Amino acid sequence: MANRTADPGLAQRAAALWQRTVPWRWLAPSTVLIAGVVLFPALYMVWMSFQDISRIGLLRGFAGFDNYVRLFQEDALGQVVGNTLLWLVIVVGLTMLLSLALAQFLTKEFFGRRFVRLALLVPWATSLVMTATVWRFIYEGGNGLLNRLLMDLSLISAPVDWYKDPATAIYSVMAVGIITSMPFTTYVLLSGLQTVPHDVLEAARIDGAGAWAAWRRVTLPILRPSLMIALILNMLHVFNAFTVIWVIMGKTAGNHADTTVTWLYKIAFTAQLDSGEAAALGVVNVVFLLLLILAFVLVLRPHRDPAATGEPPARKDPAAEPGPAVPTVAAPRPQPVGRSRPVLLRAGRGWQRVRPVALPVVGFAVALFFLAPYAAMLLGSLKSDAELFAVPATYLPESWAWSNYADVWSRIPLADYFRVSMIVALVSTVLVVVVGAPAAYMLARFTFKGRAAFLGVILVTQVFPAVALLIGLYQQALFVDGINSYGVIIAINSAFNLAFAVWILHAHFRSIPVEIDEAAMMDGLGRFRIMLRMTLPLAAPGLVTVMIFTFIQVWNEFVIALTLFNDPATGRVPLTVGVQQFIGLYETNYQYLFAAALMAIVPAVLLFALIEKHLVSGLTSGSTK
Amino acid sequence: MSSRTRPRLLGAVAAALVLALSACGGGGSGGGGDSQSIKLVVAQYTEGTRPYWDKLISAFEAKHPGRNVDLQVIDWGNLQSQVNTMVQTRQLPDVLNINVFADYAEAGLLYRADEVVSKQVLSDFLPSFAENASYDGVQYGLPFVATVNGMYYNKTILKKAGFDQPPATWEEFRAAVKAIKALPGGYVPYALALGAEGGDYEFGTWIRANGGDWRTDGKWTVNGERSVEALEFLKSLTQEGYTQPNPGQTNRADGTWPLFAQGKVGMVYASFGTRAFLDPVDKAGVDYGTAAHPTNHGAEATTHGIQDYLMAFKKDGNQQTVREFLDFFYQADNYSEYLKVEGLLPTTASGSSAMRQDPKVSPIVDMVAKARFDPTSQPVWAELRGTMAADLGTALAPDGDPRATLGKFQQLAERP
């Protein structure tokens, strides 16, 4: 990187300076976007926590630490903190474990694998509001589907009030929390598993390593960055699990299932009506999360480990050689040929025979499990009101009201909502990739001062509960005259999803051998072109994950859009906001709600069915050079 | 060299993109200072809400050329948070439909009622409703729609249990629930909804049935002896199994009402004549009757009146347009059309007499006379209500403590 021109003095210093700022210039777009969107509302939240704010939102002056004092005197504080920690441990722990198993399973080649992977997309692609609504439906007492099923199987003798009974409520909600976090976690891990070189695994096995040892010694270390990302993001999402808890539990008395975010909402808008105290809780929440992240970034140093060992050269091989398209099938075969105890050998042979049947059966069961709530949704969308509440619940509708699907288009301008949501989600996704990729590339390829700090700081964007930022965001949007403007909602959505994109891409870029860059540089390619032509295609699985994640997050975003982007007069209403019309004070038109929700899943799933295969083939097809 | 200029180019492209994005919006409704244009924020009652207002607004705009009404319909679950955001950021609506008004009146944000509607409209409001829309003796809220709530009972079940009449006292009520529980068929004697959606509504009704009230002689009596006794009574009903399971977590619309519509429930607290409640009941052919809740200590039988409000916010130069619009809305035909769409009761004399023409509705309109209201004209009520709704149900649990729970609410009400 030395300067070839030997200009003395000023020019040289300027050039050196120019050189030193290279990383920051690559990081500039993301920095600008995040600072521009998140900084003000965050500061505003802190400021609000020191203000005396009336029940209707009028500012009455400086309050000192009154809000904090009031917060710490609340009777429910202990219970809510306990719930939050419980959620943190159980939901995050089980989500990680189950997702890891599922991801590992999905790397196996078997009949119907694609179907299982797509089935996994469905819960992810469905708006969380809808998923939570259908779960509440399934969890009902006398008229609940779960109770009907369990009673038919004679597992329980009387209906259980899954979400109403204080004894079971929090666990019922946690189960939904786990099920809804699993698809995203599984995809992150799955894309991480794609980078595990098969020949290294094979070599390990030839050297006599058992399956478990090979997994622990080879797969796990390589998977570590992905695991870390999934872990951190899941922990942050605990504090954003607002939708699930609120939809299921929001209208039941007591705090027995509240975590800090739902409690914050209650304090601000339903019970205490005290935005100041709510902001104080928001601040406490953020401080706690920051400490948690700090612990991760400093103590565990998730982004340093993989590159520090001698991994990169090993990883170069699968990329450099085109490789057979089906290495997974080839890999297990040499295993039994070596030295194996007879029992194991026989078991192995037995497994070989059962495998073609067992894997698809298990896969099908998994797919069924994830699709079941949506089957309930589909059947619900075809039932009449009376049937929706029938005791005991019916599995199939008595009369299939397919007309609901036609009616819903004329009841609300559904097509317009689709169009608006699609524009916002697509443009935000593109913006996130365009802005996030250079940043991730720079973070992966350069060591410079402030690199770790940058990675930590962008994660901070994820720690603010959206509910607490709402008023600040609104204030800011007013300032730029951007209420109901596409620009603002897209900028906000992009800024809040950038952290994930940068982290995922950064981890994937790191796992691509530097030698490829160096070779390309010698061929005269510029950095930017290297990123564009070499690195990005090689990181296709990560890129796809990022795109899916961002698109779905934006597609499902509700609270911010409701406040900042909701103008029926000009037709600017996103889908999630628009379908709320079916929720009245006394009646909820579940049929239409479900019908609209199911139709909203279709474009998302179709879109990802198209790019999902890159997740599988991205690694090998990208490295044709 | 090219490798160096590239990132700058990218930055420039990104910046331009951001600029272009923020530029392509902007338009929208914005503004607001223009006196010709007002912002109307209304609550979503049913899916008929938006179509009604859309139609009304275009009729209004056609009649008053140059006037413009921007409509925002928000569902109840998000209404308060959205309005708070508007207040805090000083983006007040011109006309708002919500279930509280006293806080806004206390803060001096509202026009007096006589400033924004004509004398005819003002004198047309039913007196008890107008009084319930007043703060410090001055009417600020415009009575908008009402529900009157009381008891529906299933005639078939009561008859099977040996009762031709609904119970009028708590003793009779106890005997009735006992008899219903003894029947085969697993009936729920009384479906109780003390969940967070409207638990305080039903509980207030029980307090009044016991001869108490939220306020007595100008003082809060949330934890008065009668209130405590009422909550203990409900707890004992729950613990003895005379209600459906977990009434503290049950709400009306998705809890007790569907149960009643299935003919599984002896008695239930519900809104008289509300379409959302009655349609499924009628469809299922349940034979029902209506009554006031049974009383204790010889209390007067009452029903529970709930009204929602319209209110107009003071903003420079908006008074004329607001007044024209509100008068237009309260025109008899426009107003009764709205009631029909939502299936709710009128708050005006002319609206009531129009409704009385309908033989199905007229007995309900008469129930209005027995209606008692919650103290919504007390600014603290909004917060008290919210807290009560959130916590009331916990008192019904085996380890719940009615007296302590109500004591907490009382403290909140009396807080200076």
UniProtKB/TrEMBL annotation, chain A:
CDD domains: TM_PBP2. It is found in: Cell membrane. InterPro entries: BP-dep_ABC_trans_perm, MetI-like, MetI-like_sf. Pfam families: BPD_transp_1. It comes from the Bacteria. PANTHER family: INNER MEMBRANE ABC TRANSPORTER PERMEASE PROTEIN YCJP (PTHR32243:SF18), MALTOSE TRANSPORT SYSTEM PERMEASE-RELATED (PTHR32243). It comes from Nonomuraea longicatena. It is a multi-pass membrane protein. Residues 81-296, 418-611 form the ABC transmembrane type-1 domain. Residues 307-337 are annotated as: Disordered. Gene3D superfamilies: MetI-like. Keywords: Cell membrane, Membrane, Transmembrane, Transmembrane helix, Transport. Belongs to the binding-protein-dependent transport system permease family. The chain crosses the membrane at residues 26-47, 85-106, 118-138, 169-190, 226-249, 278-300, 357-379, 417-441, 453-474, 486-509, 530-555, 592-611. This is ABC transmembrane type-1 domain-containing protein. Its main location: membrane.
TrEMBL record, chain B:
The keyword Secreted does not apply. Gene3D superfamilies: Periplasmic binding protein-like II (3.40.190.10). Residues 1-25 form the signal peptide. SUPFAM superfamilies: Periplasmic binding protein-like II (SSF53850). Keywords: Signal, Transport. Belongs to the bacterial solute-binding protein 1 family. This is Extracellular solute-binding protein. It comes from Nonomuraea longicatena.
